[in-house]
Amino acid sequence: MKMKLLAGVIFLLNGVLMAQCSRCIVIYGDTRSDNEAHKKVVEGIMKIEPKIVFHDGDMVADSSDLSQWKTFEEIVSTLMAKAEFFPVIGNHELKGLDNYFSFFKLTPEKRWYSLDREGIHFIVLDSFFPYDKGSSQYNWLENDLKSNKNSPFIIISHIPFYSSGPHAKDCIPQRKALEPLLVKYGVKAVFSGHDHFYERSYHSKIYYIVTGGGGAPLYKKEKKNVNSYSQLLLSDYNFTAISILNEKIFIEAMTPDLKVFDSFTIPIKTAQIRKTKTQ
């Protein structure tokens, strides 16, 4: 039996409840320094009316400066009123982590966390806390992957695993420590920032997306940093939108004026609707 409710949020496919949403999840980041550019990106995001937004780090230039958080709040307040908003720690948050935790009403132990939305298990990592094998973050990640192995995984971290930008060398330690776990448990995609552009890489059946075009000064590809797995790179302000359609995760990258410049599909076996939870 196959039933569909295309205008709704779920449908039945071979007896399994599936999520059904169009551009309901957005990931963007690196918004520090240029508030006007950030405003334009947020205006673009608002036009597609997402239910869930992840910011992949570097919200402000100096996290210890409360006035910068005030400006950030002014820019994102309408967005946060309409969508769930989940943060990721970037290097520019490190100087004032107390302000970061206070702004997002998080406790310090929530430097990394996971949650289920629209049938996807999202895992938020902290690129600036020990993650080597045996560390508390590594052990937590491995246990979280084991405990949720029937769900498609998407990971979000500030530092990328692969990049062609000026921060390419920053990727190496995290990649060496964590990529084997990601491959072992079949992670579908990793979204990051840190380098201020958009880049899609693909390796070991995982898409690695850099979406760091939220308003910070844009970067260009560094010729000396060879990323053999890069498939596309654009130096422009951007955000990514995720749709769950049938048995597929559909990802679009777009500029603030909603021009789609990249899109790709990730097949999944099931996308079971689960109870919303944060771990």
Derived structural class: alpha/beta
What distance separates the N and C termini? 35 Å
Give the second-level CATH assignment, the architecture. Answer: 4-Layer Sandwich
Low-confidence runs of at least 5 consecutive residues: 1-18, 270-279
Q: How many strands appear in the DSSP assignment?
A: 16
Helix content: 10-25%
The chain-level mean pLDDT equals 90
Alpha-carbon Rg, integer: 18 Å
Query: How do the SSEs run, as a string of H and E?
Result: EEEEHEHEHEEHEHEEEEEEE
Strand order of the largest sheet: 7-8-9-10-12-11-13
What does the model show?
- With 279 residues, the protein is of the alpha/beta class.
- It contains five helices and 16 strands.
- It has helices at 35-48, 66-82, 97-103, 136-147, 171-184, and strands at residues 2-3, 10-13, 16-19, 21-28, 52-55, 84-87, 113-117, 120-124, 153-156, 189-192, 198-203, 206-211, 230-234, 239-245, 248-254, 260-267.
- The strands form three sheets. A seven-stranded mixed β-sheet has the order 7-8-9-10-12-11-13, covered by helices on one side.
- Strand 9 (153-156), helix 5 (171-184) and strand 10 (189-192) form a beta-alpha-beta unit.
- Helix 1 packs parallel to helix 2 (66-82).
- The longest helix is centred in the first third of the chain and has 17 residues, at 66-82.
- 41% of the residues are buried.
- Mean pLDDT is 90; it is low at 1-18 and 270-279.
Task: Describe the structure using short key phrases.
Purple Acid Phosphatase, chain A, domain 2, 6-stranded mixed β-sheet, 5 helices, alpha/beta, 279 residues
